[in-house]
Every structure is written in structure tokens, then in C-alpha cells.
Design brief:
Blueprint lengths: L2 H8 L6 H12 L19 H7 L13 H14 L3 H4 L1 H12 L6 H28 L6 H24 L11 H25 L10 H18 L3 H4 L2 H16 L4 H14 L4 H14 L4 H11 L9 H16 L1 H6 L1 H4 L8 H24 L4 H21 L6 H16 L5 H14 L5 H16 L13 H16 L6 H7 L19 H14 L3 H33 L6 H16 L5 H8 L15 H13 L8 H14 L6 H16 L5 H12 L10 H15 L4 H5 L1 H8 L2 H5 L1 H11 L19 H9 L8 H15 L3 H17 L8 H39 L6 H11 L3 H15 L8 H13 L7 H15 L3 H17 L3 H17 L1 H4 L3 H6 L6 H16 L9 H6 L6 H14 L5 H14 L6 H12 L5 H16 L4 H13 L5 H9 L1 H7 L1
GO molecular function: chromatin binding; histone binding
Pfam families: Cnd1, Cnd1_N
Keywords: Cell cycle, Cell division, Chromosome, DNA condensation, Mitosis, Nucleus, Signal
């Protein structure tokens, strides 16, 4: 009977199905048929262990490949007839082994045939074996089944090994076309082999392999090549292959007890292959979810918790960390079971491991909270246990906020942020989270601070107090609500005479001696009060609700106070060196303003100064562009249903509000920002029209057009005019009529801002001053303001802006100033009105003279620049000359730039203050006379104006400066008026820029003002010296110690300014290193400076000496000084500096350990 006849018979009907199936299986495996009839079967020698142990994938096997195609044809025919032929024909087995051993030497077509032949034959053999095992009639054929499986198993093992070794140039999309084809073919062959192994692993191999070692060896032939296949990253990207590999490994663990082998292989994969940790986590997740086998994961976690890594090993801890994190995302509950073991990694010195445990805890908490949200009916059953688990994990996370490594601290904050981002709420812990986040804002690591800000943002966005009163968190509003709730609750509290006294303030809670005793309380009155209150008590539910309401408001206020503290700290981080941190701080301030945090406005105003910052963050976002986005969101965003006019009014009022209580620095930064906003077309013409409308309402009694709003409107208009001068042209008549008219004369602040705005108007191309499209001459209006007599000191600010405007808009400002200066002088010296003070006239005159002198210099420099520009244009385009301009260009061409520059210098040095025809020259001696005789001319404002005028005139001519410098320094030293001393400091700073050689020898007088009695003078001096040193205008000659002492100044602004100075100085050619010895000598010899303060200053300065070469050289110099110290105090100072410098060597260590006695012994 042939196989074909059996197959035909098997299809004849269901009655013969089972019998024929058994018969077919026995025939294919050459088993006894019964009735004494047998097919011949000859056992061949094949030792699986011998072949398995001898195989080496790297070995080149010597195989005859001359007749490969014939061999392939022969073995294919044999196996197609019957897979069990591999046990009958010894030559067939040898041919298959030779083909598999020479797999890499075959061409692609032959490889494909060999791989398919082995995989399909093995798959068929496994199916046949499964049929026999299922029928139970296999006891007589165990050896034969085992032999077939061993032979095909070895062939599959060899084939998979070579498939895993096959190379494919490039990776992913970078592969060539041919390489991609070969890769797809390889993947198909691997899939076929893995599918055959899956069929094999589904068998009950314990029935075939009697001993465990035999079975394990057979299974390892499949598992080890699978793990080798995983070593190629691209292989793991194939979803189908990955699924087959995971399925086979899972079968080997769950059905064949190969967990220990797989565990070792997983550990090896984690140790040596950086791309495998996430996939190993997925493998374990597959085992847990699809095969319900968590034991391997738990054993693996226990083994990982006991690992000890070499201090130089970074790959191992990193791989384990990635594995734990991925596993916590997929199977968090299993890690929770082994948390006691996993938590041991927190004691590991490696930061990656600690980070992974922290992130794992966060993922576990999120999973528990999600499960509660998805299954609310099961909350009551396990509520207490789950709350304990969550509290334990959150406590662990909070502990890591104090970890010594900043990355671990950062990971803790990120874990908390992730938890707060989930839909679940943890109201009881949010207050603690906020306090920890605020505390972390003071961390020395910028990474920690950035993430702390993100956590605060998340806590603010998801705050739990929006249910009853909306999202706003205004402190004053919530405090009022709390008072109302408490008063409502107190209505139901018993009242006695004692409590009334307490409420009236007659009793003190702080003094324990005044606490009520039994004799102080009238018990009868108390009983009556309690009975009366009890009769008025509402039901129990109402009382509970009132108490809960009070507690709710108290919690809200605590939360708001924590946010306000964080907002204050975030404002100080706006000027961090890390740009990303600055961006985070800006976003938080914008968010806190949206939620009504009251002190966020201070931070938003400080944000203005970021407009000057250059560069971009790591993500490419520049600070200034992000500032524009923030201010657009804050002040230039209207409700979606607002009309165009409503939007314009809203934007105008918002912009005006920015000017309220703004300092000069705030206004300068605001002007720069508004120009950027206008250029970005975020401020439209409708807004400008509203601003002009508000300005035209100056003097109106309507509350919405009060003085502050009108001032703000003209300030904003002036700022926008810097970007588009045509804005001034629109309201030029209003400027002259209101700002420079009668209203402006009574409101000098309005007049000042109007003059400033007028100075930005576009001039006509003609040379007359009446070309403005107005009903009057602007210069005449400005002249009238300057000739105004007033005792209001605000006039001086107006005069400064008016003179500046004249020099900008007048075609001949020198003539205009000469004319009104003569008139002003006549007013001062021919004052007949008893109600008008001559001292005021002189004060105004001196102020005008000084500012005209400064503006004249600036005007001459502009003329010089204009001359050079025209000359360069003439030289560049000589062919463009026309007849009208030919003579002018010829004149320019005949004059060199040096000649023109020399002429300007001569005018400044010899003409302005010494020329016979110069008007300013007449005032120089007069100003000097007033300044020299301060007792005779004792009016305070007159002296201030005179000294200020003298300082400005000294900036014009070096001759005049040299003549009057001793007088000026004397005034700075001996004047009792701090304003005069401050002006002298500023004047001396300007002179240092103009005539460096004259002032350089007198800088000591300037540094003395750092210790002035008045804080304003100290601050002015520090700012001036800071500018001069950083700009390179003065040479530092040992005075840096005076600057360094300001680091310990009690005034925080001076201390901060000094820190900023040294931070900037450190960037300039090792300036701190070069001057460190002089600084230290000055600090050490200063008897007024405490030792603690000196040590803090030294520690701060040493931080800027970061080059090892400089540290070494400085240490060697100080070591020499250490051996020459004459007193113990000197020795201690030097020893402290040496200990503060990071560089150390044996000589320094021995010298410090020896102490001062060693030096004393030398003496």
C-alpha cells in the first residue's frame, strides 16, 4: 500500500478518518503497521550534543559546492516524499548538514531554497509528531520521534545562526536597493524558521525527551539563536519577527521550564546590547499579560536589585535603567510587588539607577490612579491599601528631591509633574508638592530649577479650588471669603464675657499667664450662652458644611501663598544665564497672571528688561521673540467676541497701564519692546487713534481721562514714534496745543513727555523751521517753555527734553539756542519782580547752559558723521553728480576727513568755551564763581544746577576740564548734598570717557565714593565704575578690592550689582585671575571687614578662576606668601584661600596641615 493510496482512502469519508490518520503517520515515520508487517528502518549514528557543541558560526566549513543544485534537487525530492527520510538515508543527512554549514557560501537563490526546505520539513515533522502525541499511540516510536526532531532541530539551529550572521550594508532607509532585497529575503527566511520552532515548542517535549538535560539542550538550540537574532537593532523593528521570537521564548519558559536559561540570556542582553533593554521589558510584558507568567519578571527584578556595577561602567547601569523604566510603563504592578527589592537601587552610587527607580515609582503611582479612575466600583474595597501604596511611593519621590545628584532631583520633579498631569487628583499632597517646588527654585542646578517651574505650572493649571469660585486665585478675594465663612461659623459658637474681651483685644493669646482660669470664666453665663446657641443651631449637616468651607478656604490661601512665594523667586530667575530657564520663568509668570496671582505683575514688569538680551535658547527660541509672544498674550489679546473698536480701546488701556509707576529703566525697555511689537504689526492704527483721543482729552474732568491715563497715552505714542515717526505727524497740532500749551505749562510731566514725543517728528528737507504741517512753529512753543519761570523742579526735566527736541527738529538749532539763551540771561540778571527769585532764574539758566553745551557737542559729532557719509557717497558714485550739487561735492572732495575732524576738535577745545564770539564762554567763569563760593550762593537748587553745568562744560574742552578738575573733585569730596556728590560722580565718569588721560590719575577719588555715607551716592558710584571698567575706559590699579567689599554690602541692590559686575569682568581676559592677589591683599588688610565676610567674598571670586593652569599658578604664589606670613591672622587668611582653590598638591597640603607653628619655628 502506497502513501498516495492511503491519502486517497483518507478522503473517502468520516468513518475512516481516525484510522487512516494513524496509519498515515506510522507510514511516514516507518513504524510497525501491525499484523507483523514492517517497513525497514536503519538507525544511524547522530549525537546532537556532539554536533551542537562542535558547531562554530565563525568557522569556515570545507564543503564541496560543485554539485550544489543536484544535491538540492535530490534532498528536496527525498524530504518531499517523507520528512522522516532524514533518519533513513545517512547520505541525505550529511547533504543537509553540508548545505546548512555552507549556507553563507551559497548564492541567494540557493540559500532561500535551503532555508525553506529545512523550515518546511521541520514544520511538517512537528505536525506529524503532534498528531501521534495527540492520539497517544507513540510509546513504541519515541526514539524515532526524538531522532527526527534532533536532526531537524540542529539544522534549524545552524540555519538561524547563519541567518543572524548575514551582513547587510547600511541600515534602514540607507540600504541600497539590492541590500534591501536581500534583507527582506533574510527576514522571510527567519520568519519561516521561527514559525517552525513555534510549532515544535507547542509539542509536549517531555514525552519525547525523557531526561531534563536532553530536553534543555534541545530547547537551547532554538532560544540562543533567537537571542542572537535580537542583537541586530533592525531585526527588532520587524513586528512579525519580534512577535514570533517573544512567542517562542514565552513557550520555552511556560511550557518547558526554561526560565533560568532565559533569565540569564536576558541579563546578558541588558549588559551587552544597549538597544535591547526596552525590548526585554516588552518580552516580560508579553509573558505577564498573554501567558500569565510573572515569576520570571519577579526573579529578574530581584537579581537586578543585587547587582553591583563597577564605578567606571556606565553602559550597564544605563541599560538596567532603561529596562526598569520601560517595564514600569508596561507592567507597573509587577514592579510594585518587588518594590522592596527594587528600592535597594536607590542606595546605589550610580545616578542612572536612582533615576530609573524614581521614574518607576512615578509610573506605578500613575497606574494605580488610572485603575481607580477606570474602576470606581472597586475603590472602596482596596482604598486603604492603595492609599498606603501611593503615600509610600510619593514619600519616596519627595525624599529624592534631596538627592545629592541634580539629575535624580530633576527626575523626581518630572515624576511628580507627570503624576499631576494625570486626570486623577491628589488634593492632600498638592500643597506639599508646591512647597517642594518652590524650595527647588533655589537649587544650584539650573536643570532642577527649570523643572521645578514646570511643576509649579502644572500644579497651577490643575489646582483643586476651581469648583466653586472659578479658576482665579487672587489672595485678597480668597481672604475675604475666608473671613465671611469664619464669621458665619462663629455665629454658632458659644459667647462669654471672656471671649468678648478677647475679641476686643483686651486679652493676649501670646501670654500664657493671661490664659483664662476657672475663676475668670462665668460658668453660669457660659451655660446660658450654650443653651441659647443650641436653640439656634442648624442641623448637623449645615455645621459640617460650614467647617469644611472654612477649611477649604484656608487650604486655598495656603496654596496661593505658596504660589506667590514661587512667583517671587521665579521673577529673580528671569536674568539667569540659562536661556531655557528664562523662558520657563516667563511662561510661569504669564500663567500666574492669568490665574490672578497678585505679585505676578512685578515679575511681568521685570520681564521688560529681557528685551535687550541677545541670542537664542537651545531650542532656537530667542528671548526677545518669546517676550513679544508673552506680552501679546498678556496685553494684546482680546476676547473672541469683541469688536474692532472694543479691541482697540482694550489694547490702548493695557498699554497705558504699563507706564504706571514705571521707572526710567522700565520705560526704556518698554520703548524697545513696543517698537518690536509695532514692527511685528501687533499694534494697529486703531490703537494709535485711541491713544491720540485720550491725549486730546487732557484737562478733562472725566475719570477715564485722568492725568495718569493721559500721561500714559503720550508716553506710548512717543515710544511708538521711535519706530514710525509719522505717528507724531498725526497729532502734531495736539502736541503743540495741549502739551506745549497752557495745559502743559500747568502739568509739566505732560509737557516733558510731549517734548520727548515731538523730538521724534520727521523733519522737512528744506532748511526752514516752519515746514511742519501745523498751525504754529514747534520751535517757538519749545522756546516759550524754556523761558517759563516756575518754582516747580519738574521744569528741569522739561527743559532737558525741550532742548533735545530743538536740536533734533530745528534746521539751525545753534541760532535758536543763542536767541533764547540771551533772553533767559536777561531774565536772570534783570529780575525786577519781587515775587520771582533770582536764584531760580540762575538755576534755570545754568541748567540750560550745561545742556546746550552737551547737545552742541552731539550736534557737531552728527555733522562730522554726515560729512563723512556724503564724502564716501561722492567717492563711490562720482558719475551721479548733477550740476546743482557739483560745486558742493567738489568742495567736499577737496576737504579730507582729518581736516574736518581737526576743525571739530578745535571748535570744542578753543571756540565753545574760550572763543571771543562764543556765548557759552561767557558763562564758564560765572558757573565757576558760583561753585567756588557755595557759602555766598547757598541756594540748594542753584548749587546743584551750577555743579551740574560745570560738569557738562568740562566734558566739552580738555583745557577747561584740566583747569577746573581740582575744584570739581573738591566739591565731590566735601559737598554735604548727596545729589551734588552723585552728579559729580557721574560727571567724573563722563570726563573719564572724554579725557581719559586727565581723569585716570584721579580715579582714587572716584572709588572713595563707594564708601560714601549716602546709599544713593554709593549706588551711583558703583554703576559708574562698573561701566568704566567693563568698557575699558579706566585701568584697574588695585581698586578692585573696594569693589569686592560691595559684595557684602547690606543693601541688596548694591550687592547684586556688584555680583553682576564680577560676573561680567570674569569674561574679559582672565581679569579676576590677574587681579586676585591685589584683591586679596586689600581685603586681608582691611580692619573693618570681618573674617566671615572676607571668606564669603574670596569663595565667590575663586569660583571664576576655573582654568587649572591659573589655579596652579595662583596656588604657588600664595604658597610662597604663606611661608612669609608675619602674623597668625595673615597665615589663616592665606591658608583659607589655598583651601578654597580646587587645585591641590602635596606641598600645599603639608603646609596647611603643618599650621602656623611651623612658620613660627622658622623665626
Amino acid at each position: 500500500m502506497t502513501v498516495l493510496s492511503i491519502l486517497v482512502v483518507s478522503c473517502m469519508g468520516d468513518l475512516y478518518m481516525q484510522a487512516n490518520t494513524i496509519l498515515c503517520a506510522k507510514l511516514r515515520l516507518c513504524l510497525p503497521l501491525g499484523s507483523g508487517e514492517y517497513y525497514s528502518y536503519k538507525t544511524m549514528d547522530f549525537s546532537l550534543s556532539t554536533y551542537y557543541n562542535a558547531f562554530d558560526v565563525e568557522k569556515q566549513y570545507d564543503v564541496d559546492l560543485s554539485n550544489v543544485n543536484d544535491t538540492l534537487q535530490r534532498v528536496t525530492n527525498s524530504l518531499a516524499h517523507s520528512p522522516d527520510a532524514i533518519c533513513q538515508d545517512e547520505q541525505l543527512l550529511e547533504d543537509l548538514i553540508d548545505l546548512s554549514h555552507s549556507f553563507l557560501s551559497l548564492d541567494s537563490k540557493q540559500r532561500k531554497q535551503v532555508a525553506y526546505l529545512i523550515s518546511s520539513s521541520f514544520n511538517n515533522a512537528c505536525h506529524n509528531t503532534k498528531q501521534l502525541l495527540d492520539m497517544g499511540d507513540f510509546m513504541d516510536s519515541i526514539d524515532i520521534l526524538k531522532a527526527v526532531l534532533e536532526r531537524f532541530g540542529y539544522l534549524i539551529f545552524v540555519t538561524l545562526s547563519f541567518l543572524g550572521k548575514e551582513e547587510f550594508p547600511g541600515s534602514g532607509n540607507s540600504r541600497s536597493k539590492q541590500s534591501s532585497v536581500n534583507w527582506k529575503t533574510n527576514c522571510t527566511e527567519v520568519e519561516d524558521a521561527l514559525a517552525a520552532i513555534t510549532t515544535c515548542l507547542q509539542l509536549d517535549l517531555s514525552k519525547i525527551f525523557v531526561t531534563t538535560p536532553e530536553k534543555n539542550q534541545f530547547l537551547e538550540m532554538f532560544i540562543r539563536p533567537i537571542f542572537h537574532l535580537m542583537e541586530l537593532p533592525d531585526r527588532m523593528k520587524s513586528i512579525s519577527i519580534k512577535a514570533l521570537m517573544f512567542r517562542n521564548i514565552a513557550f520555552s519558559v511556560t511550557r518547558h521550564s526554561l526560565a533560568s536559561v532565559v533569565q540569564n540570556l536576558i541579563m546578558q542582553a541588558l549588559t551587552y546590547y544597549p538597544h535591547l533593554p526596552p525590548y526585554m521589558a516588552e518580552l516580560l510584558f508579553t509573558l505577564n499579560s498573554q501567558f500569565d507568567y510573572p515569576s520570571l519578571t519577579e526573579d529578574l527584578l530581584r537579581e537586578i536589585s543585587q547587582l553591583e556595577f563597577n564605578s567606571n561602567d556606565s553602559n550597564g547601569p544605563k541599560a538596567v535603567s532603561e529596562f526598569l523604566i520601560k517595564l514600569s510603563e508596561l507592567s507597573p504592578r509587577i514592579i510594585l510587588k518587588q518594590m522592596s527589592s527594587t528600592a535597594q537601587l536607590l542606595d546605589n552610587s550610580n545616578q542612572s539607577l536612582r533615576c530609573s527607580v524614581v521614574e518607576t515609582c512615578g509610573n506605578i503611582v500613575i497606574d494605580i490612579l488610572k485603575s481607580e479612575a477606570q474602576n470606581p466600583e472597586s475603590i472602596d474595597e482596596h482604598m486603604e491599601h492603595q492609599n498606603m501604596q501611593i503615600d509610600g511611593l510619593l514619600n519616596l519621590l519627595e525624599e529624592r528631591f534631596l538627592d545629592q545628584n541634580p539629575f535624580v532631583r530633576t527626575k523626581s520633579i518630572q515624576a511628580i509633574t507627570k503624576i499631576c498631569s494625570s486626570s486623577a487628583r491628589i488634593p492632600k499632597r498638592r500643597q506639599g508638592f508646591m512647597l517642594i517646588a518652590v524650595r527647588s527654585l533655589g537649587d544650584k542646578s539650573t536643570l532642577v530649577r527649570r523643572n521645578a517651574i514646570k511643576l509649579m505650572c502644572k500644579l497651577l493649571l490643575t489646582h483643586p479650588f476651581s469648583a466653586t469660585h472659578g479658576t482665579q486665585l487672587t489672595h485678597s478675594v480668597w481672604s475675604e471669603r475666608l473671613k465671611e465663612a469664619e464669621s458665619e461659623l462663629n455665629k454658632y459658637m458659644p459667647v462669654t464675657s471672656y471671649t468678648k474681651k478677647k475679641e476686643d483685644g483686651k486679652d493676649s493669646d501670646d501670654d500664657n499667664e493671661n490664659s483664662p482660669s476657672d475663676s475668670d470664666i462665668d460658668h453660669e453665663e457660659l451655660n446660658e450662652s450654650m443653651m441659647e446657641q443650641e436653640s439656634r443651631l442648624p442641623d448637623k449637616a449645615t455645621l459640617i458644611k460650614l467647617k469644611l468651607t472654612v477649611q477649604y478656604y484656608q487650604d486655598a490661601i495656603e496654596f496661593i501663598e505658596a504660589i506667590e512665594e514661587g512667583t517671587s523667586v521665579a521673577s529673580s530667575l528671569l536674568f539667569s544665564k540659562n536661556r531655557n530657564e528664562v523662558l520657563e520663568a516667563m511662561d510661569f509668570l504669564v500663567l500666574s497672571d492669568a490665574y490672578g496671582i497678585e505679585n505676578s505683575q512685578k515679575g511681568i514688569r521685570r520681564m521688560l528688561h529681557l528685551v535687550w538680551m541677545k541670542g537664542s535658547s537651545d531650542e532656537g527660541k530667542s528671548i526677545s521673540s518669546h517676550l513679544i509672544d508673552c506680552y501679546k498674550q498678556l496685553f494684546l489679546t482680546a476676547p473672541p467676541n469683541a469688536s474692532a473698536s472694543q479691541t482697540a480701546i482694550l489694547f490702548a488701556k493695557n498699554l497705558i497701564g504699563l507706564t504706571f509707576s514705571a521707572s526710567v529703566a522700565d520705560l526704556a525697555s518698554l520703548e524697545k519692546l513696543l517698537c518690536l511689537l509695532y514692527e511685528a504689526k501687533l499694534i494697529h492704527n486703531e490703537v494709535i487713534n485711541v491713544l491720540w483721543h485720550i491725549y486730546n482729552k487732557a484737562g478733562s474732568q472725566e475719570p477715564e481721562y485722568n492725568e495718569a491715563n493721559v500721561h500714559g497715552a503720550i508716553i506710548i505714542l512717543g515710544m511708538l514714534s521711535s519706530s514710525d515717526a509719522s505717528i507724531v505727524q498725526r497729532g502734531l497740532d495736539s502736541l503743540l496745543r495741549i502739551g506745549l500749551g497752557d495745559i502743559g505749562k500747568h502739568d509739566l510731566q505732560l509737557c516733558k513727555f510731549s517734548c520727548s514725543t515731538l523730538s521724534k517728528v520727521i523733519k522737512s528737507n528744506t532748511n526752514t523751521g516752519s515746514d511742519f504741517n501745523t498751525s504754529g512753529d514747534p520751535v517757538a512753543y519749545l522756546r516759550n517753555i524754556l523761558l517759563l519761570y516756575t518754582e516747580n523742579t519738574e521744569w528741569y526735566e522739561v527743559a532737558e527734553q525741550a532742548i533735545t527736541a530743538i536740536f533734533k527738529i530745528s534746521p539751525d538749532p545753534i541760532k535758536v539756542c543763542t536767541d533764547f539763551l540771551k533772553v533767559k540771561a536777561e531774565q536772570a540778571f534783570e529780575c525786577d519782580n519781587e515775587q520771582q527769585s533770582q536764584a531760580i532764574f540762575l538755576s534755570q539758566l545754568f541748567f540750560i547752559v550745561g545742556h546746550i553745551g552737551i547737545q552742541t557737542i552731539e550736534y557737531l559729532e552728527k555733522l562730522e558723521t554726515l560729512f563723512k557719509k556724503k564724502k564716501h557717497e561722492a567717492e563711490r558714485k562720482p558719475e551721479d553728480k548733477n550740476e546743482e550739487g557739483e560745486n558742493e561735492l567738489e568742495m567736499i572732495g577737496g576737504t579730507s576727513e582729518d581736516d574736518f575732524t581737526d576743525a571739530v576738535i578745535y571748535i570744542k577745545e578753543r571756540e565753545l568755551l574760550f572763543g571771543d564770539n562764543s556765548l557759552l564762554a561767557r558763562f564758564g567763569p560765572l558757573v565757576k564763581e558760583v561753585c567756588s563760593n557755595n557759602h555766598m550762593y547757598s541756594d540748594e537748587m542753584l548749587q546743584r544746577s551750577a555743579v551740574l553745568c560745570l560738569g557738562k562744560l568740562m566734558c566739552i574742552s580738555s583745557k577747561f576740564c584740566e583747569e577746573n578738575l581740582p575744584l570739581f573733585i573738591t566739591i565731590m569730596e566735601k559737598s554735604s548734598d548727596p545729589v551734588i556728590r552723585s552728579n559729580c560722580v557721574l560727571g567724573l565718569g563722563d570726563m573719564a570717557v572724554c579725557f581719559n588721560n586727565l581723569v585716570d590719575e584721579n580715579t582714587d577719588f572716584l572709588y572713595r565714593r563707594l564708601t560714601d555715607d549716602n546709599i544713593m551716592v554709593q549706588r551711583t558710584c558703583l554703576m559708574t565704575v562698573t561701566f568704566l571698567i567693563l568698557a575699558g575706559q579706566v585701568k584697574v590699579k588695585g581698586q578692585l578690592s573696594s569693589m569686592a567689599k560691595c559684595l557684602e554690602h547690606p543693601d541688596q541692590s548694591i550687592s547684586d550689582m556688584c555680583r553682576l559686575f564680577f560676573s561680567e569682568l570674569a569674561t574679559k581676559d582672565n581679569a579676576i585671575y590677574n587681579g586676585f592677589i591685589d584683591i586679596f591683599s586689600g581685603l586681608s588688610s582691611d580692619a573693618e571687614l570681618s573674617k566671615d565676610s572676607m571668606k564669603r567674598i574670596i569663595k565667590f571670586l575663586v569660583g571664576f578662576i576655573d582654568k587649572e593652569k591659573h589655579q596652579k599658578q595662583l596656588s604657588e604664589k600664595l604658597l610662597v606668601r604663606l611661608t612669609k606670613c608675619q602674623t597668625e591672622s595673615q597665615w589663616e587668611d592665606v591658608a583659607y584661600v589655598l583651601s578654597a582653590i580646587p587645585y591641590k598638591n602635596d606641598s600645599i597640603t603639608q603646609a596647611i596641615e603643618g599650621g602656623y607653628k611651623m612658620v613660627q619655628a622658622r623665626d
